[in-house]
Design a protein that fits this description.
single chain, alpha/beta, Rossmann fold, 3 domains, 14 strands
Length: about 475
């Protein structure tokens, strides 16, 4: 990463702060609104069409009266902060969409019951539209962002007050525009001799922030100066952020829960409530019930695939079809994680021979305990690993209660020391068939990043985060991102 000289403006030049791009909140709202309206209309139209194919004699005219209710749904989206929907994690966005659609459909159901005209409408159309609406709206929003996130009109401009490591970390996480915010410039809280060239430019010293808001071109100010005292931060907010309609204060608390955190008033003091959902009894019951239902359905649905893979392994390599390896589970208990066998029977001997011959291979093994081109893996095993099919037998581990569908990946015995203090958090939950690490690059990430993903999942768990990971898993399996 290159760096460039960053000379702060003098006091006189601070009055001539360069103009920044105007806010695009209305354009973003229009794009997202149009996407939602189109998706909901298509869901409703397709449901009507399928209903007509199944029962051509059924009168669909009465159901068309429900079409204006789509506007009621969009109004609910707006009330829930989904327009323009900036700074929303995908799991939180999914939760809000589902809550809005469920609330509106519940009101519609209650209304038709009160007016005694429920028989006029098709229950199948009603239920399918409700069930398909939320996931399809969420997916269409994600597709929209992928298509236009690089456009100049996408993203609400924001400025960052602060130039230290915390500020740079926040800037890098926001500058791609995926969360609806694009950093237009930075105000430095300390003299800066060099500034990374891949980051937005330094506009000026900290007290120049007060002059940029006169045309109201930027509504968001993000304060990332954790090293400053409370009195200094209060001074910055009161004197430099008066013209911003949104002021975000970023504390120096990396690793703590960030999804669902809420502010509480404590007699004039501010307290942050950090939810610990995964450790609530009700959450544990709902997660376990979801694991059982989905795993049983998956086993039934994938039975032909299981047979085909077992036959391919048997015909292409001598040895058993399944492989069991001891892994750490919940509360540090050992269990046998099932897999389809992907290695040759004499795998350890093959590995020792290749490591002795190839120094670069030996270095890769000592660093990651994995090899991108592992000589032990069979021809069918490479294919199974590429699409993560070797891990499907772990559905049995899920049904027996040793694993969960979503969670940190089962930890090999040799890797316990690598987790350090993070192992305590890891051991409080069941390991997962898939997890945040799998959908975030998998083997393309470092081991430290893997641990960070596991800790983030445990601290921020919700049913919506699980749903988000399961949906992303489908994409990760198809693209084979980071799989080897």
């Amino acid at each position: 990463m290159g760096a460039k000289p960053a000379l702060l403006p003098s006091v006189t030049s601070e009055l001539r702060v360069p103009s920044l791009p105007s806010g695009n909140q209305w354009i973003m709202t229009l794009c997202t609104f149009s996407s939602d309206l189109l998706t909901l209309s298509l869901v409703f139209a397709l449901t009507l069409w399928v209903r007509h194919l199944v029962s051509p004699s059924y009168n669909l005219t009465s159901n068309l009266e429900m079409l204006p209710c789509l506007l009621l749904l969009l109004c609910a989206f707006g009330a829930k902060g989904l327009y323009p929907g900036v700074l929303l994690h995908s799991a939180e966005e999914m939760r809000r969409i589902f809550a809005c659609i469920s609330t509106v459909f519940l009101l519609l159901a209650a209304t038709t019951f009160i007016w005694h005209n429920a028989e006029t409408y098709s229950r199948s159309i009603f239920l399918v539209t409700w069930a398909a609406g939320a996931p399809l709206v969420w997916m269409s929003r994600n597709l929209l962002r992928r298509l236009i996130v690089d456009k100049t009109f996408w993203g609400i401009p924001a400025v960052v007050l602060g130039s230290g490591p915390s500020a740079q970390r926040v800037i890098r996480k926001l500058q791609d525009g995926a969360l609806g915010i694009k950093i237009a410039g930075v105000f430095s809280d300390d003299p800066v001799a060099q500034w990374p060239s891949d980051l937005p430019p330094l506009i000026g010293a900290l007290n120049a922030a007060r002059y940029i808001t006169s045309p109201r071109s930027v509504n968001y100010a993000i304060i990332a100066m954790p090293q400053r005292s409370h009195a200094e931060l209060r001074h910055v907010i009161q004197d430099y952020c008066q013209g911003f309609s949104h002021v975000l204060l970023v504390p120096d608390m990396p690793g703590l829960c960030s999804l669902g955190i809420s502010a509480r008033e404590l007699g004039g003091e501010v307290g942050f409530e950090l939810p610990q959902r995964l450790f609530h009894t009700s959450a544990a019951i709902s997660k376990r019930a979801t694991d059982l239902v989905l795993s049983l359905l998956a086993l039934v649905f994938l039975a032909p695939l299981f047979l085909a893979v077992a036959l391919a392994i048997r015909l292409t390599s001598p040895g058993p079809v399944f492989y069991k390896q001891d892994r750490y589970g919940r509360n540090g208990q050992l269990f046998g994680a099932l897999k389809f066998r992907t290695m040759a029977p004499n795998a350890e001997g093959i590995l020792a021979e290749h490591l002795a011959k190839d120094a670069s291979l030996r270095s890769e093994w000592e660093r990651d305990r994995k090899l991108k081109n592992d000589p032990r893996v069979t021809s069918i095993g490479k294919w199974l690993r590429r699409f993560s099919l070797d891990e499907l037998p772990q559905l049995i581990n899920v049904i027996t209660g040793q694993m969960s569908l979503v969670g940190p990946r089962p930890l090999p015995l040799r890797d316990r020391e690598k987790y350090g203090t993070g192992y305590t958090l890891y051991s409080r939950v069941r390991p997962g068939l898939t997890g945040l690490w799998q959908v975030s690059g998998r083997n393309n990430t470092t081991y430290e990043e893997r641990i960070a993903f596991d800790e983030y999942y445990v601290r921020n768990w919700s049913i919506w985060l699980d749903t988000y990971i399961l949906i992303r898993t489908i994409r990760a399996v198809i693209t084979a991102d980071g799989a080897y």
